[in-house]
Amino acid sequence: MASSNSADSDSASGRIDVVSLIVLVSYPKHYRIFAEKELVHEILPNASESAFVWFGNYSAEKDERALVYMDVIGKMVRLGYEISAATGGGGNPAIGDNMSTHTSHYILVRKRQ
Question: Organism's domain of life (predicted)?
């Protein structure tokens, strides 16, 4: 009798898309999306090519047509993503942020058939 492993059946039947969204909440257009470029283009079809920095990841600060991060999250939910994890905290003094800034990190996941 054959047994079925759920991880094997997930990988055989579809794909899991994972997107990391890091937001500097004090500035709603200051965020970065870490994902495959094709996924970023699906989420933001009008993204400027100059906004793809750091190994092809998207930086909203470099895009004149950037949406605010809440609109990006809303669009991703409509595309079938679910928020898998989220964290938040104060600024990072090591990179010059003062503690009045707030950074949030979202991991969004979508299963495709």
Answer: Eukaryota
